[in-house]
Design brief:
Low-confidence stretches: none
Strand order of the largest sheet: 1-2
Strand content: under 5%
Shape: flat
Helix content: over 70%
Number of strands: 2
Structural class: mainly alpha
Radius of gyration: 24 Å
Distance between the termini: 43 Å
Number of domains: 2
């Protein structure tokens, strides 16, 4: 497992992590309710511009992350028109028919809108994950949103186990190769390989967890209801500027789409 975070000194990296949550949350909720392809496409363009511009994420690294997600969405686009309920698209033109499979124009539009909606949600999430250190996010939750520090720092300690266990897995794999144990092939070989790795990896995880618990207990972790912080996270002027600017850009985009008749109805309005 590898973190999506890319260290840099850009405008987005210097923001309080909670400001990015507050800025993108209304857009996430709104995009999730859209039924037309133009709204998520607009937010995709807006978000990618912010990631590459204000986030200073290298284009190559961004494409290596965005391309697999795009392939996933394209696969969904190909499948959705084949499984959509026929009563929803029966009145639209029939594009082609292959045996029992019928593909209608409305089904393709619904599939495109759904695929773009998923991709827009992923891009909005990448704006946060690519520019936010998980440690700073947990610290901000504890300091500003009053998350109990026992839960926050416990989760942070567990999160730190991921790279350690990943490194330990590499050591175990190298030790097996030195002893002449070949990697498994096929499902059976993979299962046997997982069994060989499970016991030493579990033993290492238990030892590290015990040492971490003793270290936290030795520092009186959880003994007091409040604690001090070496690094205090606060909202600055740039955080309010980003939140207001993103909300304004989102509202203007929605207004332009509505004036052009491209907004469409929302999911909640369709159900009423």
């Amino acid at each position: 497992m590898q973190s999506f975070y890319i260290a840099s000194d850009s405008f987005l990296h210097r923001l309080n992590p909670l400001s990015k949550v507050l800025a993108t949350l209304p857009a996430l909720l709104f995009v999730a309710l859209t039924t037309e392809p133009w709204t998520p496409l607009t937010f995709i363009v807006l978000t990618v511009a912010l990631i590459l511009g204000l986030g200073r994420i290298p284009v190559g690294r961004f494409l290596r992350l965005a391309a697999p997600l795009l392939l996933l969405v394209l696969g969904f686009l190909l499948v959705y028109p084949l499984v959509v309920r026929e009563e929803l698209v029966r009145n639209s033109p029939l594009l082609f028919e292959l045996g029992p499979l019928r593909v209608y124009q409305a089904g393709v539009i619904f599939g495109l809108a759904t695929a773009l909606r998923i991709y827009a949600l992923l891009m909005l999430s990448l704006l946060f994950t690519l520019t936010t250190d998980a440690s700073d996010f947990i610290r901000a939750l504890v300091q500003q949103w009053r998350l109990p520090y026992k839960i926050g720092y416990g989760a942070l300690a567990a999160f730190r186990f991921v790279p350690m266990l990943q490194s330990e897995l590499g050591v175990i794999q190298a030790a097996h190769r030195v002893r002449g144990i070949a990697d498994g092939k096929g499902l059976r070989g993979t299962w046997q390989q997982m069994q060989r790795y499970a016991v030493p990896l579990l033993a290492t995880a238990i030892r590290r967890a015990e040492r971490t618990a003793l270290a936290m207990d030795g520092r009186a972790f959880g003994a007091f209801p409040e604690r001090t912080y070496y690094r205090a996270l606060r909202f600055h002027r740039r955080d309010y500027f980003f939140i207001g600017g993103f909300w304004l850009a989102s509202a203007l985009s929605v207004l332009v789409l509505w004036q052009m008749g491209l907004l469409g109805s929302l999911v909640l309005l369709q159900q009423v």
